[in-house]
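Example for tutorial group B:
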């Protein structure tokens, strides 16, 4: 069986079926409209201390909200649960949400039918702000009687700070102080999207961009992002960012792009993009052939950049494996604290890549030196017994006898013998102390 793809898969309705198709669409639309609502959040249940938690199912109510339908400010409060079980995005007070009515686990005791409950989607993006999007009730007094749109476009309200605080919308629960931790932050910029991107943004400057190489210039003829100057448009990149990009020249409502050198913490998964990272240490003097600089590398890589990195293995190993080399560069020190250090290599250089002097094998050298020193000690003992020596005059050939080393040969031989074997303090007696208890070489 052949299947059509793309636009060719769409078939034009025949005139005889056109009216019935429209009627079907309108019927579906009516059904959706009957289930679809939107409202303003008046309270939320985020922990077990909420005073009304038992009224809405106990712990199962956590994540739910209480809302009032828009345009019915005098109506009662209704409870709604999150629509998706795996995604939690509780709205703030005074944010607007879309509500659906679907089946629940509760049964009507009279009709035995499944009762419908309300479920909500994420907050509506009124102000295009990832931080918060409240819309206070229109009954909130305004000294100058100006609309939210007028204020948003720059028309001033001309009120003092105290009056402004009285007019600002509440974003936290009015009934559960234990969950009231949210503070509005006007410095949380939204991320600038590019064609095809999928972006997830938190309220606090944290985000995930499933993006791509997207080379685009702004009106100042500058690139709109700093990862698209190499490769082809459409090459994938994933950017995970945490923290506020502290650029004082960018107001909080202006969309921005990620910057690995400014963002507090970030992870980049690239395909062939060049990431202009400024690394803390780029001293590659230990390499005979230095690697490509990190800010020039254009192959697939993973970059982790933050104030501090901790790799902790609770149970097993941390394995670093590389086809070429593993570089560790630090501007202060390199510290290792462990019970044992094993370096399995046929060529170890310390101090410089040009190091040529070989290290001495301690056991072999000291064993041979001990033999030599013992022979010297025997010789010293023999020499100490010599009191006179015969000296031959080189001109006359006449031999004469004289005291050995002016009578000091015995003293000097005894001193050298004591240095070699000196009753527990000589060289041979202390030979084991010359060996390192830590470092071993082959």
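The residue assignment follows.
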């Amino acid at each position: 069986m052949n299947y059509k793809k793309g636009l060719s898969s769409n078939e034009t309705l025949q005139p005889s079926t056109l009216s019935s198709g429209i009627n079907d669409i309108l019927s579906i639309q009516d059904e959706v409209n009957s289930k679809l609502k939107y409202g303003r959040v008046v309270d939320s249940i985020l922990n077990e201390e909420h005073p009304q938690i038992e009224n809405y199912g106990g712990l199962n109510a956590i994540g739910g909200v209480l809302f009032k339908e828009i345009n019915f400010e005098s109506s009662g409060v209704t409870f709604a649960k999150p629509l998706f079980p795996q995604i939690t995005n509780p709205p703030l007070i005074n944010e607007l949400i879309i509500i659906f009515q679907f089946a629940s686990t509760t049964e009507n005791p009279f009709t035995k039918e499944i009762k419908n409950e309300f479920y909500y989607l994420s907050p509506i993006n009124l102000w295009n702000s990832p931080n918060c999007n409240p819309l206070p009730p229109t009954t909130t007094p305004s000294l100058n009687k100006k609309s939210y749109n007028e204020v948003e476009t720059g028309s001033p309200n001309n009120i003092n700070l105290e009056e402004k605080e009285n007019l600002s919308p509440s974003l936290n629960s009015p009934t559960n102080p234990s969950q009231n931790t949210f503070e509005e932050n006007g410095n949380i910029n939204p991320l600038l999207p590019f064609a095809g991107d999928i972006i997830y943004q938190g309220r606090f400057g944290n985000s995930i961009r499933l993006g791509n190489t997207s080379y685009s210039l702004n009106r100042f003829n500058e690139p709109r992002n700093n990862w698209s100057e190499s490769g082809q448009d459409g090459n994938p990149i994933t950017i995970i960012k945490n923290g506020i990009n502290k650029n004082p020249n960018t107001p909080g409502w202006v969309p921005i792009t990620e910057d690995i050198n400014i963002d507090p913490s970030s992870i980049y998964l690239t395909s062939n993009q060049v990431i202009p990272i400024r690394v803390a240490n780029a001293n590659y003097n230990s390499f005979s052939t230095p690697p490509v600089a990190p800010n020039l590398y254009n192959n697939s890589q993973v970059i982790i950049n933050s104030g501090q990195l901790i790799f902790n293995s609770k149970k097993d190993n941390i394995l670093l494996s590389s086809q070429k080399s593993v570089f560790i560069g630090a501007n202060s020190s390199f510290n290792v604290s462990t019970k044992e250090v094993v370096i399995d290599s046929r060529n170890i250089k310390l101090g410089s890549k040009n190091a040529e002097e070989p290290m001495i094998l301690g056991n072999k050298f000291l064993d041979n030196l001990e033999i030599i020193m013992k022979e010297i000690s025997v010789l010293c003992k023999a020499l100490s017994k010599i009191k006179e020596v015969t000296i031959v005059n080189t001109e006359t050939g006449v031999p004469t006898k004289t005291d050995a080393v002016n009578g000091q040969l015995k003293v000097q031989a005894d001193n050298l013998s004591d240095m070699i074997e000196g009753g527990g303090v000589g060289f041979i007696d202390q030979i084991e102390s010359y060996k390192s208890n830590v470092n071993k070489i082959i």
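Helices lie at 15-35, 148-152, 161-167, 362-383, 409-420. Compare this with the pattern of hydrophobic and polar residues in the output above.
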